Amino acid sequence: MNPSSYVVLSALLFSIGAIGVLVRRNAIVVFMSVELMLNAANLAFVSFARMNGNLDGQVVAFFVMVVAAAEVVVGLAIIVTIFRTRRSASIDEPNLLKY
Amino acid sequence: MTDTVTDVNTGEQVVFWVCAILAVAGALGMVLSRKAVHSALWVALTMINLAILYIANSAPFLGMVQVIVYTGAVMMLFLFVLMVVGVDASDSLIETIKGQRLAAILLGLGLGILLVWGIGSGLVASPTVGLDAANDAYGGNVEGIANLIFTRYLLVFELTSALLITAAMGAMVLSHRDRWKEVASQRDLSIARFRSGVHPGNLPNPGVYARHNAVDTPAILPDGGTSDLSVPQPVRARGDERTLDQVDIDEVRQITEGSGE
């Protein structure tokens, strides 16, 4: 085993997150899957930083965390707003933009 | 001390395998569990294990930030929103697009195999420099990251502050709800209570006599009759209400006939 195993693990987690985004219907679970994909990318950044011997990867992972936190706040607010008007958290329900 | 190694020591291998298996189990549990709350808890497990893996990758600062920001703030925010949206909001199994689930699983597996196989075979022989030198250059991991953030990435850092302010404002605007009608004041409530026609105040008390003051004794009205309202409704419904004769005949006669002398 060498440090590239971390990158393989992050690829695995990213794929599971992608499957979650495609398969699940609940908007909140879809959102959690997106968070999982962001975390997988962070793990890749951190392990690449270690393999290359500089801290830039860790700084990028830090910024990804900040952006993810902001994204979660806005996304959950949107989900709550949609739930208030539609009484549903399913991503199949909001189809007004279709027409 | 740039030690170029291609292998990690036994302790880290143990940490990696334990945490990697737990993280993958958490991710799979998130995708597979029907209830959204269970999904949130599985994701929290994955995030904690990822934090341990960050620390194992000589990124202690990011590990702590991961615990604080993700498991502490983000996942708890998810749980709060689940409380708002409804805990039993579970997925419907009806497919709106035919064959979407199967296609999605196949595509996801394909992506996984491609990534794992490609990266795994591409990186196996690559040497690892290690972060010891970079961490020690400024006296530690936190100091090293701070040095980068406040010099090379200063503009990005400032932009994230703007982003966070915008996100906070956006969340407030999105979750703010206008009132459709005026909140009823105390005066409005009082007027509505009198207009409704039912007795606006307290009901009359039960009768209080020299030897009886229990709730089952009715009060005497000015005309000598008894007030049904003075006995609680459950007592009346059971038929446990006393008549005035049962209270004290002489006493009641004195009261009703007004012969108080």
In short:
The complex is a heterodimer of chains A (99) and B (261). Chain A is mostly helical and 99 residues long.
Order of helices and strands of chain A: HHH
Put simply, the count of helices of chain B is: 11
Residue share in β-strands of chain A: under 5%
| CATH topological fold name of the largest domain in chain B | Four Helix Bundle (Hemerythrin (Met), subunit A)
CATH evolutionary superfamily of the largest domain in chain B: NADH-ubiquinone/plastoquinone oxidoreductase chain 6, subunit NuoJ
**What is the number of helical segments of chain A per DSSP (H or I, 4+ residues)?**
3
Please mark out the parts of chain B with pLDDT under 50 across 5 or more consecutive residues, or reply none: none
> What is the number of strand segments of chain B?
2
Helix percent of chain A reads over 70%
Roughly what fraction of the amino acids of chain B lie in strands?
under 5%
Whole-number radius of gyration of chain A? 17 Å
Helical proportion of chain B, percent range:
55-70%
Indicate the mean pLDDT of chain B.
84
One letter per element, helices H and strands E, the order of chain B comes to: HHHHHHHHEEHHH
General shape of chain A: elongated
Distance between the termini of chain B: 115 Å
Question: What's the arrangement of secondary structure elements?
Answer:
The complex is a heterodimer of chains A (99) and B (261).
Chain A (H helix, E strand, L loop, with lengths): L3 H20 L3 H26 L3 H31 L13
Helix pairs in contact in A: 1-2, 2-3
Chain B lengths: L9 H23 L3 H21 L3 H26 L14 H24 L8 H5 L4 H9 L4 H22 L10 H10 L23 E2 L5 E2 L5 H6 L5 H4 L1 H9 L4
Antiparallel strand pairs in B: 1-2
Helix pairs in contact in B: 1-2, 2-3
Describe this protein with a few key phrases.
heterodimer; A: 99 residues; mainly alpha; B: 261 residues; Four Helix Bundle (Hemerythrin (Met), subunit A); 3 domains; two-stranded antiparallel sheet; 2 strands; elongated
